[in-house]
Amino acid sequence: MKTIYDIQQLLKRFGTFIYIGDRIADLELMEAELKELYNSQLIETADFQSAIMLLRHEIRLEREKRQTRN
Prior knowledge:
The protein is mainly α. The chain has one domain (4-69): YqgQ-like (Helix Hairpins, Orthogonal Bundle), CATH 1.10.287.760. Helix content is 74%, strand content 0%. The protein contains three helices and no strands. It has helices at residues 4-13, 23-39, 45-69.
């Protein structure tokens, strides 16, 4: 996993489409869905770990952007 798009494509393979309209909420929901897939043993450990790291990094960046705007 290298991009958020890669994660979206992975989730799409399992019939999961996420769009709430709030970028941070979208990313957090993707993280929750990935955890469910991993706990159900539907995705590999390496895919899970890289996706979670990418999502958490992106969430941190989005929160920093919001703080600088306020």
